[in-house]
Amino acid sequence: MGACCTTGDDEAQAFGRQVNAGMDKRNDVQKAMNILFERNNTFMKLDLRFKARELPNIDSGTKTDSFCVIFEHIKDPGNPENGQWIERGRTEIVVNTNDPSFVKTISIDYYFEQDQEFLVLLHDSDNFENDTISLAGTNYIGQNQFKIQNLVCNRDKEIEIPLHDKEGQGAGTKGYVTINYEEELSCTNQDLKLAVSMFEGNFVENRAYFIEISKIKPHPSNESIKIFRSEKCTFDNEALIPFQEIIIPVDCFLCAKNAGINIHEIPLKITLREYNQMGDHKETAHISTSIGNLLNGDSLITLAGTTHEHTFSLKRNKGQLVRTHSFLDYISNGCEMAFIAGVDFTGSNLSGANGLNLHSTSLQENQYFNAIQQVSSILLNFDSDKQVPLFGFGAVVDRRYYNNVSHCFALNGNSFRPEVQDIGGIQDAYMNTINNVQYAGPTFFAPMLKKWNEMVSFECEKNTKKYYTFLILTDGMIHDINDTVEQVVVSSRLPVSIIIVGIGNANFSNMVFLDSDEQPLFCKNTQSFSKRDNVQFVKFNDINKNGDNFEALARETLKELPRQMIEYFEGVDIEPSDMGIPDPNLEVRDYSSYKAMELMSSPHFASEGNQDLVQKVIQEGIADPDTIEYSAFNLSYVNNLKL
Length: 643
Prior knowledge:
By secondary structure, the chain is α+β, with helices and mostly antiparallel strands. The protein has 17 helices and 30 strands. The strands form 6 sheets. Strands 1, 10, 11, 12, 13, 14, 15, 16, 17, 18 and 19 form an 11-stranded antiparallel beta sheet that branches. Strands 20, 21, 23, 24, 26, 27 and 30 form a 7-stranded mixed beta sheet that branches. The longest helix is centred in the first third of the chain and has 15 residues, at 26-40.
């Protein structure tokens, strides 16, 4: 049997969802690359629009002639408190009103993984050529700063802020400014999705082939510009070998001259090439067609061989145009991004770099806390209650009752209600834990991931408008890799992304394996593949080599998150407008109630008295279900709890 395969060399030659970097037609290629980049990364274009109210009178005898100026704070990587303000644009001047609505928008670049701060100034000018005049020649009205995250998280897509003076005084006395945004979307906002297999013809057994798709420039040029190249597949006479699903934004096919054309009439060319390891890939066959014919025509796509005596057929297994949604489409319709974190307390942390404890009580030197702080500073903007379930693993938590290592315990002491409030709660719970547990081992991820997956699964039954980020911080190798892979595969079917941050300088090869960008993870336990790539691994010291780039970690760890969120929701057919619509027939259950019922039905608690006791223990939050379950054979522990 033949098999699809992709190698590192293939990636270097732009196989998969890439654009061939060796094309001669640089302008068209760059356009296609920009489209793919914007779709698959966290960079988004926003148009900001402004209006103001209750501005003070600046001119004598007339009302204010005002305009807005927008600056962005560009931080110094070594010292984020410093930096410079760069002007991003100005509105037109609206004359003789204290309640202006500005027509001109200002375009900015929004990066999900960055903490971006902007400054809006309002000035009065009697010179209407405000794009060229110096602000020093105008009359200052007021100003205020805002974070772009606060704007995009608002379901109404707008915020209102009071204006104050340059010293930050007199808020509201200078008026108010409202800022709203619209995302700059592509022309068509659609993807061409196509799945094809090698079917019949003059294919050669055990040789590898790949396909290219090109756009066709309008007459009189009629030039073909390559915009897609698949992975290579090895032909087998006994099997239909499918290429990986082809996904191309329709905008990649458009030129200035055919921008208004019907999508189904857009011409394209499919070329079949025989793979050559030296890079001289021989053209085997091709066909010129259109998107409409490709989608609605015969399921067999017959390509004419270059020697005119051979033909090759590809079988179309699937073909459709799919409307795409952006990250901000989901956010503006109410999607929240919940955040769960787990911290490694295994014994190897006590002998980290230079023999130092990686859980340093000096937070400035503590990579664990710095990593949580950087990631949470972005994610908590998208979480309305800002409650973070915070766990640890790899330590003995309480030796009074048992001498076993816990691989999933709550840092606030209550695994049943593990949430802490905002970054302050994270700091308090973490600092309270580092000196109050016995560092042990080994490093197991699976128990914690299993619990988190259960929590998300139950939450999904009553709330479809949350996406979860699991943040795991660890200093070394995983010792339950097969069970961990199983839980990662489970999470790939849930609204979950997993971020793993390596602390210190240990061997992180297992983490790199979990971050499987080239091929899906395969679980030996269940004989199943992950549904999507939802793991990102980053080594802290690689990102922050000099110890002074305080925001680089958040940028690196979170850059794939918007794409992963979109892939999940599109994969389960949840539209932005569908989010949060409850099922009226659904019996709402929460995770805690389920665990309580599960424990009370256990044979170890068969008697009525023990069931009542367990219920009371859980309701009071004195012990969590996992602790009680572990102590099932030692009822004296439960009976001695102070109720």
